[in-house]
TrEMBL record, chain A:
It is found in: Cell membrane. Its main location: membrane. It holds the Pfam family BPD_transp_1. PANTHER family: ABC TRANSPORTER PERMEASE PROTEIN MG189-RELATED-RELATED, SN-GLYCEROL-3-PHOSPHATE TRANSPORT SYSTEM PERMEASE PROTEIN UGPE. The chain crosses the membrane at residues 21-45, 79-103, 115-137, 149-171, 192-214, 250-271. InterPro entries: MetI-like, MetI-like_sf. Keywords: Cell membrane, Membrane, Transmembrane, Transmembrane helix, Transport. Belongs to the binding-protein-dependent transport system permease family. This is Carbohydrate ABC transporter permease. It is a multi-pass membrane protein. Residues 80-271 form the ABC transmembrane type-1 domain. It comes from Nocardioides renjunii.
TrEMBL record, chain B:
This is Sugar ABC transporter permease. InterPro entries: ABC_transporter_permease, MetI-like, MetI-like_sf. Residues 1-10 have a biased composition (Low complexity). The chain crosses the membrane at residues 45-71, 106-127, 139-161, 190-211, 244-269, 295-316. Keywords: Cell membrane, Membrane, Transmembrane, Transmembrane helix, Transport.
Amino acid sequence: MSRGVPQGRPRTSRAWAGLGARHLVLGITAAIMLFPIVLTVSTALKTPGDVKVNPFGLFTSFSTANIESAWTTGDFSSYVLNSFLLSVPSTALVVVLSTLGGYAFARLPFPGRDLAFYLVVVGLLVPFFTYMIPLYFQLRGMGLLDSLVGTNLVLASTGLSFGTFFMRAFYSDLPTELEQAARMDGASEWQIFLRVMLPLTTSAVGALAVFTFLQNWNNFLVPLLYIPSGEYRPLTTGLYLFLGGRSVDIGPLAAGTLITILPVLVLFVTMQRQVTQGFLSGAVKG
Amino acid sequence: MSGPAPAATVAPPPAPAPRRRGRRAPSYAYVAPPATRRAQRRLGIVFVLPLVAMVAVFLLLPMASAVYYVFVDFNGINPQPPFVGLANITEVFGDPEVYDALWNNVIWIVIGTLAPLLLGLGLALLLTQVRRGSVFYRTVFFVPFVLPQVAVGVVWGWIYAPSRGWLNNVLEAVGLDAFTTGWLGNPDTALYAVLATAVWSQVGFVFVIFLSALRNVDVDLVDAARLDGANGAQRLRHVVLPQIMPVLLMVFTITLLGGFSVFDIIFVMTGGGPAGATEVLGTYAYSSAFQLNRISYGTTLALLITVMAIPFAVWLNRLQRRTSLEGGAT
């Protein structure tokens, strides 16, 4: 049985015209999708004088002055560092805990398994909004407000429900014969996980890692709420702060925007397949 | 990436894990020897313990506190807030600002769900009919979705700028000067301007999901319909759409539930203004709690969002399960 909407070479001139029309619509859409990014790059790389005269126009001059001023006086250098310090540990935490948990929920019978699973996936049902305010006071009480540790733990916990659900689906799909064969050969339960099962799901683990990293890097509300003093302010809230003095400094603002989206764009373009596949299997399975 | 985040607000999961085509689901028909069962039990508990601990402290505990906050009057300082019963809840129902915000939420949910759905489906259908450049189009359409909403808000702010903004420039260039306005500063246009930005950033996500659903459509059925004389629209309506129905409902659920908890893009672009024109429950809850120090009232508003979203989640999930049982493609 063949799958997918049929494709074929157009045979008539009418069919060729149809193909041209399709490319026209797709091309215009692509231009609309790309335009804001082009605008960011062009505004960021103009000379500050040119930005004053012609704030939103496309390239007419070239200079790195805006980037330099965002990097130094705009403090974007420290925001970049903070963004990494807030996304890398939280992502690692989500990936490790979700993989272990997903495996246990899928393959290891233990008492209280169903109850524990439902408790973990409650996070898929209840939006962050519901508990964000009490969480602020809870973190304050724990001394974790304005801290890298506290913010990382919150970022990780918002991703755990999805991550566990996602990994459990993958581990559920693996055939039982594999672990039985390994057990016959004398492998311990830990060895079965580490040597047999984990290697079979590395692509899922990778997709989860990329997906979670993007989520955490882009997260705005969590650092906005839980880093009130701004000591470890990441790019997202840093850019928002910069926006406060809008209309004045469009050049450095564009440069700051470029600095904020550049890592995301690089990661996305290099890992394009994994990102879309990850989103896809996540959404379809989830 | 936030807004209708796929991860945060997905419908409730069905108890058994969904199967992938052609793979076998695990069965525990094989009875492991007691020693193995003991080892599995031990490893299972060790694997799940840190996960459950984190979820308990950072999800379940604050959720329980949220419910407690509704029934007291907490100002963020008083360690022993007075019990007020249902006062917060009755105040919500008597607050005209809540109704205005709710109305904006409704507009947001209706347009913000339907527009990406239709555009995403249309683009996906178009792309299945071209070969050249499909990887390029796919990548480009998806880019806005991975960008942080703050950055998206900044750039669209320039497009909407009252003087020399791109949108007004284009309107002037084509002689539609009468329609130029300060898009984000005008109460009549602000909500729709922000909404258009949100649609721009969401459509790629919907598109990619539909694209993969269309790949799984049974071509033989489409061809058979063509031979029976069905035209393009009929083939779409009676052959293609029923097959992608489960996916359509899933996308519908994600965007709909995302619409309830919209925050980032509005907060960044207008902050709820001008004059409350873009205020939604999310921004109102935030400003009540953190700007007016009305912690309990803000929490009550946030809970209201959840309580309203849950029936939709349950209903859609039931619908989705029924359609997939009827044998659609995944």
